Amino acid sequence: MYKTIDAFMETVISKNPGQDEFHQAVREVVESIWEHLQDNPQYLHTKILDRLIEPERVIMFRVPWRDDQGMVQVNRGYRVEFNSAIGPYKGGLRFHPSVSLSILKFLGFEQIFKNSLTTLPMGGGKGGSDFDPKGKSENEVMSFCQSFMTELNRHIGPVTDVPAGDIGVGGREIGYMFGQYKRIRNEFTGVLTGKGLNWGGSLIRPEATGYGCVYFAQKMLQTKGDSFKGKTVAVSGSGNVAQYTTEKVIELGGKVVTLSDSSGSIYDSEGIDSEKLQWVMDLKNVRRGRMKEYTEKFGGEYWDGKRPWGAKCDVALPSATQNEINKEDAETLVKNGCICVAEGANMPSDPDAIDVFLGNKILFGPGKAANAGGVAVSGLEMSQNSILMSWSREEVDEKLKNIMSSIHDACEKHGKDGDFINYVKGANIAGFIKIADAMMDQGVV
Ligand code: NDP
Ligand code: 2IT
């Protein structure tokens, strides 16, 4: 039995060398639940924590494909099937050159708790590849997706493991992978979520992560009697999550002044209105261009190679990638009057940044709570597929709102400390209890 958090983390680090992002995600959870564990020795005796940090299965495979010049290219594919205590493995696929086992283990580990919070029966998993879709032709993306699914298909299934999108994987890639799965298996099933609307997809799934994050931030603001109306909002990223986050903030009367991509950020003091957002959606989803072009079209400032956190804002909604807010960024945000941060991305704030937010007692919603709307609507897509029905936009949106609200309540229940809510602690404890109890019920497996 471990005496201290540091002693536990030493073992995690020595068993998983070099997996820095995974260590970071585990430490955050363990720090939150440590006290709860000491008060509940049944979890210690059954080594729930030791079992929880060990994926049930990790699959790693070769993905060979031919580029447009006929040259053979080789990427590495992964699926981390982390925990199936409360349902089939569920989580996205990420295609990005930075993808490694550490990144996918951190994402899969986070996903276990996130999925538990959604109230739906989904276990945790994550996968992807170091393939870089940037600059590739349609044909190359399709060839890669088909090769990737040629191996992945034997490990997944509607009651086993149900992947979806993440960075670099959107409707286009899900389509190519679904087509290949169906061709190999001769089965039309809900094996992937984020599908097209006329072949089993759910209304609101594309919007769900962004909308859900804004619904969650709205609940957080309401605890202070506040709302999005008239708020200046900094959003990072310009992909799926950033786009629909911006759409919902505009609808609720807020003003989004920043967006970004991996090359830099744009700052528009007038606000990104619906028309400008439509242009961004076309730029990123159809033309696949860079955010720099925004300032050439609409004016404003382009901050080359910089993140958007220098912008003065009331609310920050990081929606690009992990560790995109460090201590200095967090201090700048707080100094400039930011009162609320809700994470659309997974682990965008590093541990020092989280300390700054919590230390200053601002509203801070961690990704596993704030961005759970995406996987929640994936869960609703699975339900619709299994009953061969599709629900209306209003029905799905209503269910999404209710789920985000219940996640907020769970965070409040386990994270309330006087008049402050520690959402990190609340989300981790609430997520943990459901998984740990299910694992206890199912014996040593
Ligand atoms: P997209 O691929 O649609 O967009 C990603 C955006 O983030 C792009 O603007 C991209 O810029 C930027 N970005 C990616 N990597 C980096 C990097 N290393 N440095 C700076 N910017 C970067 O992905 P999503 O919008 O789907 O995902 C964004 C975040 O939200 C991720 O953390 C993901 O895990 C999380 N998330 C996504 C969900 C979903 O349903 N899609 C659900 C829950 C969380 P560029 O174009 O230059 O690459
Ligand atoms: O990080 C995430 O929750 C996602 N990328 C969505 C996963 C899903 O299965 O919809």
Strand content: 15-25%
- Per CATH, the superfamily of the largest domain is NAD(P)-binding Rossmann-like Domain
Helix content: 40-55%
The CATH C-level class name of the largest domain = Alpha Beta
Write out the distinct hetero groups bound to the structure: NADPH dihydro-nicotinamide-adenine-dinucleotide phosphate, (2Z)-2-iminopentanedioic acid
Mean pLDDT over all positions:
98
End-to-end Cα distance, whole Å, is 19 Å
- Specify the CATH architecture of the largest domain: 3-Layer(aba) Sandwich
Name the overall outline. Answer: globular
What topology, given as strand order, has the largest sheet?
A: 9-8-7-6-10-11-12
User: What is the structural class?
Assistant: alpha/beta
- The CATH topology name of the largest domain reads Rossmann fold
Number of strands: 14
Instruction: Note the main sheet.
Output: 7 strands, mixed
Q: Give the low-pLDDT segments.
A: none
Radius of gyration (Å) = 21 Å
Total domains: 3
- What's the number of helices? 17
Description:
With 445 residues, the chain is of the alpha/beta class. It folds into 3 domains: 5-52, no CATH class; 57-187, Rossmann fold (3-Layer(aba) Sandwich); 208-370, NAD(P)-binding Rossmann-like Domain (Rossmann fold), CATH 3.40.50. It is built from 17 helices and 14 strands. The protein has a 7-stranded mixed sheet, sandwiched between helices. Helix 1 (5-15) runs antiparallel to helix 2 and helix 6 (138-152) packs across helix 7. The longest helix is centred in the C-terminal third of the chain and has 23 residues, at 393-415. The protein is globular and about 60 Å long. The relative contact order is 0.12. It binds NADPH dihydro-nicotinamide-adenine-dinucleotide phosphate (NDP) and (2Z)-2-iminopentanedioic acid. NADPH dihydro-nicotinamide-adenine-dinucleotide phosphate binds next to helix 9.
